[in-house]
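Hi everyone,

Forwarding the result from last night's run.
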Amino acid sequence: MPELPEVETVRAGLSRLIIDKNIISVDFDTPKSFPNTQADVDTFLLNTHFTSIRRRGKVLMLDLSSGYSLMIHLKMTGQLVYRGVESFGAGHPNDSLIGALPDKSTRVTIKFAQDGILFFNDQRKFGWMRLLPTTIISKEPFMMKLGPEPLEDSFTFARFVAQLKKRQNTTIKAALLDQTVLAGVGNIYADESLFAAKIHPQSIVKFVPRAKLKLLHSAIKEILLFSIEKGGSTDRNYVDAEGKRGSYIDFAKVFRKENMPCPVCGHEIIKIRVAGRGTHVCTHCQKLYKETAK
């Protein structure tokens, strides 16, 4: 699933590519991917233009001149790719995962008057585009439950500790994956951040020393920012708004590195299951905290 760096990279790309372009048509193949009435589409989407593009956690909000927004969740395999007229008939030269569009995974196409089409592709059909009044999006139950944004100045160490207390009896990885604790962090960046802080993912939150949590707080910010710099992580399906792969995986320390030597100590990185997810860990570098530190 695209995490904060991937969604932020898409947001930045779309902000360069589709702002102020007039929307002249919308087509979709299933209401599951585009659960909107035709009346709302005709009134609030067609013949309008995008004025800004925002992100909250793993969700994108494409604000329209009509006072409505497209609220988009890419879920597991969603892609938002813009193509100019010149590239409709062939794969984009930067592609390595997708070719000519539309393809069999294309669920929604938004065509602009000036030129170009925005394609929403989703192999698994779990993602969606919902058309909602901009003013009510922040009041949607899902949005109201989201935890703090880890890259905002308000995400202080004190707030991080306070958020973790909500899950103090769970594993530290489960807490990081909980979007009500922290918005936008998923499997890749939880593994990478815990490795950087030398905390075993199965450690129980209430037993992790404060000094280690301090390291984790800093690591989360640093790793997310570095991934954004590298265009995110293409593990399977993710591409940016122009169809390019992200390169963070090339720099990952433990994620997808099972059976390889730890870059710090040389011991073998193993893969286990924590919080229902495949989890990568160096048991030599990452300490397991299940009781109060001595």
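The chain has two domains: 4-144, 157-281.

Cheers,
N.
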